[in-house]
């Protein structure tokens, strides 16, 4: 037992020394979370503003101009072009000059007067003309996010068009937004980003770990020594647990100071959840490492795991919206369980133990993975 | 009976292998190798590249499993007791297999810990090894930045850090100059003197000649084994040295004779191996039209290379 610990310690020290001399890798440990955080938090935004749109004004009245101003006052769109006909407008959308065009009909004022929200007319069902919308949007529907933003304009209030207050309906439901009342996407992205970056770096580092020894010819020397496979595996993952901790600190620290991501849960819970996930990812990397024959192969397998971890884990798209087979794949990925845990801890102040399914799953994944990699690692060259 | 026989054997021999065979698919890398290595001797594997030297060493260290055959190394039956064996053997691989991005001292410390040396033992052993292998000045240098000779000394130091009873060296001097090679062999004889059994593979004749005993391997088959002196004196051929002009042409003519095993030029001489059954080799060669009566012919003492050539039927390509 004592010699076993000495051997593990020897491997840990060796890995740390090698890492210290490898300036590039060490730099990437810091740069990857930094750059990713800035990219995801600043560049990726699902609250879209200022979509360039055009207008075809058949009415040419004061009212139609006020209508345009009201629409652009929402901030969602900016009118950049004017077209004379619907045909021209469609051509403009074809060549991507604008993403959508607002077509204001000649009789816009009559339509407005009869519009139910204004209140002069009868209920929409009783008379054909009352239910006509006041204008039409032509939208490039290929991008669903943009289309969705413009669709949200369908029910915009028209108070500014008339002096009279609008006759608005009482909402069917009252909605209370918990945990992220301002609906900032960064609040959801930063905790998820911890999962993505850890998946990427932890799997990448360890998947290269064993393969590198093989490629450089060190393995022939290592397997002739009395070292046990499990000792080698444990010794290889311990240094990277610290690396993972550094990366998590960078992401969450910047998320808190720079982007005001609320930090509602306890630090101990966060450490526990992160530790479980780092172990699971490292072990997954080790399994890859015992399968791959070269560092290039291990890199490809890392990407193979990374892509579903980004797309299916709930980081980008909600888990509930995925078809059943995709949900099964998502359940198999450690990142999915970790994203649930960390969002729970950080945003909703839930204890890890209360989400015991995800917790146990990560623990089981780690144990099974460690066993598989230790079994797969052969002490012979055949 | 057989169990008692093996135990008895393992007391006398460091390595005892019987009909050791290893196949890689269709290729038989080592076939039916019988091997007895006495304790406290230096045993050599001589053979060209691809003759099965490395595979044989890997089989004897437990790195590879034999397709068939029995191996007993230091009383451990392989592959069953290969874990027990690991503490007793040292192995210096053909390619440098320590870490290029660690210093000499860090490499040795790593290996020392892997073999379970206590901190005190470690310190004493490390300074001892650095002195013996003349690496004290390089202790803080990265292994990757050292010369071939220094790397080789470091590899040997790492292989003997736990004082193994049996040391395997796979072409240890292939990247080393003659001066370093001499010193390296001095180290080996010191180790042998202290009780270590050494098995070394090589493709250098001069190195093979230093071994106590030698096995000549070709295509995974053992062609001969004995002490170098015995191999040379028991050579089943006669060696005739010819001094003449136009040696290339003479060589090409003589090699066609059925009685001639091989002919190889050594500077101004041509060395011709003639089959043992020829009673008058000089007379036979002098009859050949390609030779002038003025050319000088003489029977000389066989060298290890002659032994190698007559065993394997290969020319001086080695």
The percentage helix of chain A is 55-70%
Low-confidence stretches of chain B: 1-10
Q: If helices are DSSP runs of H or I spanning 4 or more residues, what is the number of helices of chain A?
A: 14
CATH architecture of the largest domain in chain B: 3-Layer(aba) Sandwich
Strand content of chain A: 5-15%
Strand order, sheet with most strands of chain B: 6-7-8-3-9-10
* Most extensive contact: A-B, 26 and 32 residues
Strand content of chain B: 25-35%
**Whole-number count of domains of chain A:** 2
Q: Based on the structure, what is the oligomeric state of the protein chains? A: heterodimer
The top level CATH class name of the largest domain in chain B = Alpha Beta
Mean pLDDT of chain A: 86
Largest sheet of chain B: 6 strands, mixed
Structural class computed from helices and strand pairing of chain B: alpha/beta
Structural class, from secondary structure content of chain A?
alpha/beta
Largest sheet of chain A: 4 strands, mixed
Report the CATH topology name of the largest domain in chain B: Rossmann fold
Ends of chain A: how far apart? 29 Å
Which bin fits the share of residues in helices of chain B? 25-40%
């Amino acid at each position: 037992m004592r010699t076993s610990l000495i051997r593990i310690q020897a491997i840990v020290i060796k890995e740390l020394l090698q890492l210290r001399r490898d300036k590039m890798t060490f730099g990437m440990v810091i740069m990857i979370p930094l750059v990713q955080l800035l990219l995801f938090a600043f560049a990726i935004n699902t609250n879209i503003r200022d979509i360039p749109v055009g207008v075809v004004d058949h009415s040419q009245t004061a009212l139609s101009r006020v209508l345009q101003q009201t629409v652009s006052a929402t901030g969602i769109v900016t009118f950049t072009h004017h077209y004379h006909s619907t045909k021209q407008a469609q051509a403009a959308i074809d060549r991507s000059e604008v993403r959508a065009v607002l077509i204001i009909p000649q009789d816009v004022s009559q339509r407005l007067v009869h519009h139910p929200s204004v209140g002069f007319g009868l209920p929409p069902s009783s008379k054909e003309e009352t239910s006509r919308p006041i204008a039409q949007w032509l939208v490039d529907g290929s991008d669903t996010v943009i289309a969705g933003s413009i669709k949200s304009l369908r029910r915009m209030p028209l108070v500014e068009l008339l002096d009279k207050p609008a006759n608005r309906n009482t909402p069917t439901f009252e909605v209370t937004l918990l945990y992220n009342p301002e609906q900032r996407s960064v609040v959801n992205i930063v905790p998820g980003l911890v999962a993505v970056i850890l998946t990427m770096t932890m799997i990448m580092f360890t998947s290269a770990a064993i393969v590198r020894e093989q490629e450089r010819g060190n393995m022939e020397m290592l397997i002739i020594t009395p070292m046990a496979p499990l000792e080698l595996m444990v010794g290889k993952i311990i240094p990277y647990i610290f690396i993972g901790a550094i990366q998590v600190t960078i992401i969450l620290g910047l998320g808190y100071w720079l982007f005001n991501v609320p930090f509602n849960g306890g630090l101990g819970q966060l450490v526990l959840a992160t530790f479980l996930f780092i172990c699971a990812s490292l072990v997954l990397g080790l399994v890859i490492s015992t399968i791959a024959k070269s560092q290039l192969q291990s890199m490809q397998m890392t990407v193979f795991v990374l892509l579903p971890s980004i797309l299916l884990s709930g980081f980008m798209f909600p888990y509930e919206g995925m078809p059943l087979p995709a949900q099964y794949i998502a359940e198999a990925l450690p990142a999915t369980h970790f994203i649930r845990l960390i969002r729970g801890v950080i945003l909703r102040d839930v204890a890890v133990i209360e989400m015991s399914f995800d917790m146990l799953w990560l623990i089981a994944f780690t144990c099974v993975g460690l066993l598989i990699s230790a079994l797969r690692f052969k002490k012979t060259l055949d | 009976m057989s169990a008692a026989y093996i135990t008895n054997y393992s007391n006398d021999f460091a390595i005892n292998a019987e009909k050791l065979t290893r196949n890689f698919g269709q290729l038989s890398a080592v076939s039916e190798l019988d091997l007895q290595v006495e304790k406290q001797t230096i045993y050599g594997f001589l053979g060209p590249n691809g003759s099965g030297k490395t595979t044989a060493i890997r089989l004897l260290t437990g790195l590879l499993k034999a397709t068939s055959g029995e191996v007993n190394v230091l009383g451990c039956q392989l592959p069953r007791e290969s874990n027990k064996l690991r503490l007793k053997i040292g192995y210096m691989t053909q390619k440098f297999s320590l870490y290029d991005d660690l210093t000499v001292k860090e490499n040795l410390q790593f290996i020392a810990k892997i073999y379970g040396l206590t901190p005190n033992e470690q310190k004493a052993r490390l300074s001892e090894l650095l002195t013996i292998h003349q690496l004290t000045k390089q202790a803080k240098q990265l292994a990757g930045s050292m010369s071939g000779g220094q790397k080789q000394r470091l590899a040997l130091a790492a292989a003997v850090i736990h004082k193994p009873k049996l040391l395997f060296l796979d072409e240890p001097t292939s990247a080393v100059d003659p001066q370093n090679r001499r010193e390296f062999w001095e180290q080996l004889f010191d180790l042998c003197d202290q009780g270590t059994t050494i098995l070394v593979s090589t493709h250098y004749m001069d190195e093979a000649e230093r071994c106590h005993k030698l096995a000549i391997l070709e295509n995974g088959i053992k062609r001969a084994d004995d002490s170098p002196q015995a191999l040379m004196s028991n050579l089943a051929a006669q060696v005739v040295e010819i001094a003449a002009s136009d040696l290339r042409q003479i060589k090409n003519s003589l090699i066609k004779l059925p009685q001639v095993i091989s002919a190889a030029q050594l500077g101004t001489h041509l060395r011709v191996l003639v089959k043992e059954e020829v009673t008058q080799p000089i007379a036979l060669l002098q009859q050949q039209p390609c030779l002038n009566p003025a050319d000088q012919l003489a029977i000389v003492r066989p060298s290890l290379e002659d032994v190698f050539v007559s065993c394997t039927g290969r020319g001086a390509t080695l």
